[in-house]
Amino acid sequence: MKRIILILFVFICTHSFAQKLSVSSDKNPAIVGEQILIQYSIDTQGNNFKSPNFNGLRVLSGPNPSTQSSYSFVNGKSQNSTKTTYSYYLKATKEGTFNISPATIKVDGKTIKSKSYQLKIVKGSDKNKAQQKALSDNLFIKVDVSKRKIVVGEQIIVTYKLFNRLELNNTELSELPDLNGFWTKDLETSSRFKRDVIDGVTYNVATIKKSVLTAQKSGNLIIDPMELKCSIRVMNNKRNRGFFSNNYQIQEEYISSKSITINVTELPSPPPNFYGAVGEFTIKSEVDNTTANTNEAITYKLTITGTGNIELIEPLAIQFPDDFEVYDPKISDRIFEGGRKRSIKTFEYLLIPRYEGEYTINSSSLVYYNNKTNKYNTKKTTQHNLIINANGNTEDENSTINQQIIKTEKKDIHYIFTTTKLKEIRDNILNKNLFIVIFFLPIFLIILLRIYNTIVGKTDTNSSNWKKKKANKIALKRLKYAQNCINNNDFESFFEEIEKSLLGYFADKFKVSIADLSKETVSTHFYTNAIDINTKKQFIALLDECEFARYAPSNNKNAQMGDFLNKAKHIIIEVETALR
Amino acid sequence: MKLKTLIITLLVSISSYASNQLFEKANKAYNNLDYTSAITLYDSILNIGLESSELYYNLGNCHYKSQDWANAIWHYEKSLKLEKNDKTIQNLELANLKIIDRIEEIPQLFYKKWWSSFISIFNTFYWQLISILITWLALTIKILSQFSNYKKKRFLSILYSILLISVFATYSSYQENITKKEAIIFTSSIVVNSAPTINSTNLFTLHSGSKIEILDTIGEWINIKIASGSSGWIKESSCKFL
Q1: Any CB–CB contact under 8 A between A434 and chain B?
Q2: Model ipTM value
Q3: Which helix (DSSP H) or strand (DSSP E) does residue A493 occupy?
Q4: Closest Cα of chain A to B203: distance in Å?
């Protein structure tokens, strides 16, 4: 029982001990420029390893994980152990004490943290320095620039060359230059080593990179350094060489080129049509057909040949006739050494003339800066005359679609008046009081006149005039009343109304009082107003009949009454028409 | 008094020749794109005491070309007060596009629109003359019909109805052109207050070139109304009366 507990205890102990992330380095303190190996190890398998922060130390490689597992069987007891190691190769660039922050790892869901580690870097001895110097003498990158003072748009060639006298195992680009402010075009290079002798010393030389740079802006532009990681095979100078041990070891070194400043100056006051072409160019334009039919394609080809930043030349502003449909140009180029050698760029425009007629494509010009003569030059294309004939097959249906609408898009104010009639500045109205007096005076007078008429005018001719106008209306009213009497069979009043209406009408019409009415006066008035004699006779006859019928009883009075009414109406209408 | 007016008219007739020359000189300056000297020349005509719709229009153009929108609008409006002209209205529309404020006008009812376009056919003075002329004509016809056999009752009644319309038109025209006070904002930006005190609530902000109608005045404060119908109080000094 006791033994079991002991075994259990031991087991637990070992288990808990295993959960530790230890950190170690191969040398502490280390010398500036030396390679340092830092290892993090744990006695189990973990995951999610988080790198520490190497403050100021350069990581050459890592983390490189490695796992060891061993299985041993001793005296009937089996032992199984696993070890995981994460290793880093560091390099210190300056002396001092560097604090490496703790790294973490996850084991069975638990996060295990290492201790922070202090690394001391000390100054190397003269021997070390000499070693460094010997290295930089034997292995270096040289940058060649074709020109250090250029203008905007001018091109330079930058060549990076590796000089080597050591046994190089492997090289790897670790940092490419940024080349801000340049348009870069890499040229093909062969990285094969060639022999080259400088000052009596033989080097193996390889061209790593060759580019054509075109300056895009003015100022001091920096070609920043290029860094190369080299693996060198060095002789192991340690004494205790084993029988099987290798005499050589691989050393990793970082070498970088020097940065170079290029002075780029602004172009001297560019002419208006200058769009940044620098170099030496010629320009040529071609048209495949000078006579064509409408709606048939014509190709206009513009060729630029020369040396310089030809790749960056934009299509020229060509004035094509408005009636041509122009498509975006097809751009093709054959560039040699980024334009350092004679290159060709062509712009091919497809033109479709829509209307017949004679057109000209005006010559367009390319303005460039010649960096050899330091002057602006202008090259012009030829002018092309085109004759477009009407296509016989043009469909009439489309003719309306092709009509152009004249548009005025810009708006401006109208032009000034050139003549004027100047007047005194004053309120351009009549005085309010004056206006009231002048305006209301006639109105007041009119009203006065009206009042005067209504008071005085009853016996006046004016009132009789009024009566005359109203005469037929009154008569008609009476006749209507008479009609009512027929309906009521009121014979007495019917005849009376007929008589009254006729007499009243007559009196009003001829301006006589009813008292003066007699058959004689009626006939004279009829005569003076030139009314038909028949009407006069009818009028008198009707009056007589009325008188008669009023007092003589009759059998069919109703029919008689209707007859009378119509007659009376007829007479009044006759008189009215005669007097008009 | 009579002598004074006589002298003034005499002076005016003499100066009108000189000022016409000034006008032509200013036009030349305008053609030479020298707008500042054109403005001073045109202004000197105004200083003599003469004006015309065309003069204000040309001044408006000068200010428009020198991008002084508020002044341009003021002069175009002034020109329109004297005489309606399509060119002036179109230029004013363009100038109104240039200013900061875009005031949405409340659409008027159709009969109001017709009526206002009808009364703008003549200016107030002519409307006054027309009404007076018609009343006197009516009186003459009335008297003629009273004392002779000249009888045109129908004509008279037509005349009366025309008279009624013209009286209304005169009144509206008077209200529109004489009683209604308008102004253009000249300060680059001004806050419109809810009451004639600085501490009152800020309602909205107006910028130079906006047209305002003046409803009331209290001291240096004026009660204003803009075409969108909003109203408030601003200081009189920030605008120029038309």
Answers
A1: no
A2: 0.74
A3: helix A491-509
A4: 34
- Whether residue A449 lies inside any domain: the answer is no
Q: Do B138 and A446 touch (CB under 8 A)?
A: yes
User: Which residue, A362, A391, A420, sits at the end of a domain?
Assistant: A391
**Are B187 and B216 found together in one domain?**
yes
Task: Find chain B residues with C-beta within 8 A of A453's C-beta.
Answer: 146
Residue A397 in tokens = 């249906």
Asked if B52 lies within 8 A of A423 by C-beta distance, the reply is yes
Q: Tell me which amino acid residue A418 is.
A: T
CATH number at residue A117: 2.60.40.740
> Measuring CA to CA, how many Å separate A489 from each of A63, A337, A476, A556, B51?
138, 133, 20, 11, 85
Write out the H or E segment, with its range, that includes residue A521: helix A519-528
A423 Cβ neighbours under 8 A, 6+ residues apart: B50, B51, B52
Residues of chain A contacting residue B61, judged by C-beta atoms under 8 Å apart: 413-416
| Nearest CB partner across the interface for A420, out of B23, B90, B177 | B23
Of B51, B53, B131, the CB nearest to A425: B51
What's the total number of domains in chain A?
A: 4
Q: Walk along chain A (580 residues) and give the pLDDT tens digit of each residue.
A: 556 655 555 554 445 455 778 888 887 778 777 778 888 888 877 778 888 887 777 777 778 888 888 888 888 888 888 888 888 888 777 778 888 888 888 887 788 888 888 888 887 666 666 666 777 778 888 888 888 888 888 888 888 888 888 877 778 777 777 788 888 888 877 777 888 888 888 888 888 888 888 888 888 888 888 888 888 877 766 555 555 556 677 777 778 788 888 888 888 877 877 888 888 888 988 888 888 888 888 888 989 898 888 888 888 888 888 778 888 888 888 888 777 788 888 999 888 888 888 888 888 888 888 888 888 888 888 888 888 887 765 554 454 455 666 666 667 888 888 888 888 877 767 778 888 888 888 888 888 888 887 887 644 455 556 666 667 777 777 777 777 777 777 777 777 777 777 777 777 777 677 677 676 777 777 777 767 777 777 777 877 777 777 776 666 666 777 777 787 777 777 777 776 6
Q: Residue B105: inside a domain, yes or no?
A: no
- Chain A residues with CB-CB distance to B135 below 8 A: 439, 441-443
Asked if A410 is an interface residue toward chain B (Cβ–Cβ < 8 A), one would say no
Rounded alpha-carbon distances, angstroms, from residue A576 to A265, A470, A520, A529, A580: 114, 12, 21, 11, 6
Residues A90 and A141 in one domain: no
Residues of chain B positioned with their CB less than 8 A from the CB of A427: 178
A411 contacts B94? CB cut-off 8 A: yes
8 A C-beta contact, residue B218 and residue B53: no
Tokens of A128: 């070390």
Is B49 in Cβ contact with A417 (below 8 Å)?
Answer: no
Residue B144 and residue B134: Cα distance in Å, rounded? 15
Q: What is the CATH number of the domain that holds B231?
A: 2.30.30.40
Q: Which among A412, A418, A422 is the top mutation candidate for probing chain B, defined by the most B β-carbons within 10 Å of its own β-carbon?
A: A422
Helix or strand (DSSP H, E) at B94: helix B86-98
Q: What is the pTM of this model?
A: 0.43
Which of A411, A420, A439 faces B55 most closely, judged by CB atoms? A420
**B129: chain A residues, CB-CB within 8 Å:** 430
Q: Are residues A475 and A514 in the same domain?
A: yes
Inter-chain touch A429–B54, beta carbons under 8 Å: no
